[in-house]
Design brief:
GO terms for molecular function: oxidoreductase activity, acting on the CH-OH group of donors, NAD or NADP as acceptor. The structure is a single chain. The chain contains nine helices and seven strands. It is an alpha/beta fold. 47% of the residues lie in helices and 15% in strands. α1 crosses α9 (219-231) and α3 runs parallel beside α4.
Length: 266
């Protein structure tokens, strides 16, 4: 039996990258999937392809920085597929990579809206439906960047720290409803990775060499199964966890200081 047979999953940012990989793996495991994506072109293309392969998938135009839009995505999942069992909060809108002192209030606001607030709104919207269903699984996306204080990601690091706190709070408080909440910190060859690889010759090889497993992750083959595990009954006794899915990158970590920034400026 497939891991996610008869499960309904809403995945934000599933029009590409890691989110798409997770959606594709979920469908292979029997789930019906809502592709909650900002880009109509990308989201509809993924949903149509999954349906063409015999899967159950529906695109829902979703702006995760907008509460009403997220609530609509959850309502669409319930209206179209009858319920919501799994919520995967993956999407976010990146801001320019600049030093902390150059990050603006607007950048932080954008990042918080598309990560912390987005997850908060989605979780609150899904909550009553999961309760009616007798439980559910929430998987939030955390990041190794927070743990190493990655340069040029000050707003992102701040937001992802909050995501971990939100995940643990939900695990502690919603366990009484049989709702589990976990976080993963993935690294894989998504859209940003391919952009960096195209702009920087040798980037993929250097990135692979940093990981004990010696390779870079595939969104569907490497990240998808871990999210599916957390969404399935295989993890029925797992909640409040944060799991690195990065080929071991969290063990050595990495130096993110830009080469042009001096060690001391005083």
């Amino acid at each position: 039996m497939n891991l996610l047979e008869n499960k309904v999953a809403l995945i934000t940012g599933a029009g590409g990258g890691i989110g798409e990989g997770v959606a594709r793996y979920f469908v292979k495991q029997g789930a019906a999937v809502i592709i909650a994506e900002l880009s109509e072109q990308l989201g509809e293309a993924v949903a149509a392809d999954l349906r063409a392969q015999g899967g159950k998938a529906l695109f829902c135009h979703t702006d995760v920085s907008n509460k009403s839009s997220i609530e609509n995505a959850v309502a669409t999942a319930v209206d179209h597929f009858g319920s919501i069992d799994v919520l995967v909060n993956n999407a976010f809108a990146p801001t320019p990579n600049v030093k902390l002192e150059e990050k603006t209030d607007e950048m932080l606001t954008q990042t918080l809206n598309t990560t912390v607030w987005a997850a908060w709104w989605a979780m609150k919207a899904a909550f009553p439906h999961m309760c009616e269903r007798g439980g559910g699984s929430i998987v939030n996306f955390y990041s190794i960047d927070t743990e190493i204080g990655a340069w040029l990601h000050g707003d992102y690091n701040t937001a992802k720290s909050a995501i971990l706190g939100l995940t643990r709070s939900a695990a502690a408080e919603w366990g009484r409803f049989n709702i589990r909440a976990n976080a993963i910190a993935p690294t894989a060859m998504g859209a940003t990775f391919h952009k960096l690889a195209a702009e920087n010759p040798g980037f993929e090889e250097r990135s692979a060499a940093m990981r004990p497993l010696g390779r870079c992750g595939e969104p569907e083959a490497d990240i998808g199964p871990v999210v599916a595990f957390l969404a399935s009954e295989m993890s029925r006794f797992v909640t409040g966890e944060s799991i690195h899915v990065d080929g071991g990158l969290h063990l050595p970590g990495y130096n993110s200081r830009p080469a042009e920034v001096p060690v001391r400026e005083y």
